[in-house]
């Protein structure tokens, strides 16, 4: 068998395929590379005018989901779409239900400023005017006029009473009393009793008549009082109109295209006269509440609370990194004043949904689901197409604290959730509303095909990262090295990784080393230095394993031969850094019923996949050596010095070779290691982590006395396309010191490792005597013959045995 040629161990990026000297000559990509499917899904979702076409972007972290969305929205958003300002204002009829005003972008702040100007003028002008001589004279004149009329009317009754020897006295404001007189003094109870019955009756009759007249007079007084109040109100309104009327008229004219604003301005005109005392009473409460709520000192009922304002007519794109209930749906603040909790419409605060209204809201799915009540609230808002500001405290408790209930905001938003596939599948399965509201799935690729065209596209992607992150430009050699590393990340010679975050990190670190060296460009040496530095920082645990190999604590052989012992290969991961290790797999066999004991499984250290591999191995053995007769050799298999769980079937080929060696007694070469699984027909199947496994055995050989030239690794034929080996290993292969062998069938692996042909059965199922399988066959036949002889001898001794 031949080892692999150099060009199959590593697919280099040829410089002639990159027609540029540096990335400065390349046009940076406006889009994310290789995500055509996801981009088409996003384009479709954003173009759909109907509800429910929100997007769930599926893919692991670092694929550039958020970057792609933001770039796409930046370049493809419909600029004709109208954005709006949203304001809350007082509802003078229902103070607990503030009114919502919708204005074109930029107009909300204008209205707020216009109202502040009007109010700051009125705060000065109203006290000046209403405390000025002109107004006070008119008010005094009006008061005197009605006072005179009231006095005259009461005087008439008093005169009539006087003539009848009765006095009219005023006891309290609005309280009148008719008293019978005894000369100049009013009668007392005693003196009144001393009068004759006729005199008493006469007085009572007179008083009754006078009371009727008095009641008529009091009714007149009440009507005049009302009339006076109306005239006083009319005077107030007339005076107010002189001060504010033309300004309110100007505002009505300015906002004439917005009927809701005009209606509110007219409501203010009517409300000002009703609430003059706000301007005239110089109390500190307004100032204290304004100070506490960080507002300007002005009458709060005339404030305009702009909850969303767009500076220009851009479509809003909001990224919410902390989607708590209040951050999303808004809330109503409270102010404490003199021990009393106070709130009003001016303390309504917006959430991300308000800010993204008319545009796009981007969030992380896991963060949304982690926050209590947010997911249900979000679905409710999307279904009802409105944002209701509900205090979370009121939803959670039974207390009936007084608060404002703002008018709901009509919602028109496209939502994008970023998440992994597991979350997406859980939502699909357990939340029936999810599929209705998030009808579009943008599925992000992990890799793209590697070709001359895609390499150039990838180079432009690198150029766009360089520009975006403000890094030094890369030489074409540096780009080639990044492309090669990307193929290594994708674990395929003809694929490139689309994990943008990792590529961005590599470029940042390469930029750091380039600047440290005072270079003007990032070259391939700087990229190599960044990769080496990252590997060194993460390899402490790997080096501890290597130390145990070097000092003999871990038993590994890289030379000589041994029966029933094979170097298998495994991959360990320590938080993002993966490395390969040699593991000794051993097999022993003994007289038995033909079963294979998997020690790892029996002690519960073997995972399901590992157990499956051993069971396939058992069935393969039985199909080769126990088709017609039982197999009287049992065997046991184990990973030596393994103290943790083993899973995966990539060691099943190594286990088979160890077993075949033990059954046949033919020793296994220790200078070779093997990885791969196989099926019941003996075909070798691909495994993962092939690069790390080869590099792990290469390092083991170096640690155990250096390379001898005969050492190497057997890998499945189907894994050849995954090879992107480390430069040091490729260099050793070039010098003939190390080899990589591809195997397609179990027999090839056995032949190479045991140094004898595995053997091919003839028409009668006989294997050649000198082949490995032939040796096993002969051994089993000898045992069966011995078994038959023993059985015949027992029958001869005791004829009753059947």
UniProtKB/TrEMBL annotation:
UniProt domain Lon proteolytic: residue ranges: 560-756
Which lineage? Bacteria, Pseudomonadati, Pseudomonadota, Gammaproteobacteria, Pseudomonadales
Q: Which InterPro entries match?
A: AAA_32 (IPR041699), Lon-like_helical (IPR046844), Lon_proteolytic (IPR008269), Lon_Prtase (IPR027065), LonB_AAA-LID (IPR046843), P-loop_NTPase (IPR027417), Ribosomal_Su5_D2-typ_SF (IPR020568), Ribsml_uS5_D2-typ_fold_subgr (IPR014721)
Q: Where is the active site?
A: 650, 693
Q: Which family does it belong to?
A: Belongs to the peptidase S16 family.
Q: Does the keyword Protease apply?
A: yes
Name this protein carries in UniProt: endopeptidase La
Q: Which GO terms describe its molecular function?
A: ATP binding; ATP-dependent peptidase activity; serine-type endopeptidase activity
Q: Which residues form a coiled coil?
A: 151-241
The EC number(s) given in the record are 3.4.21.53
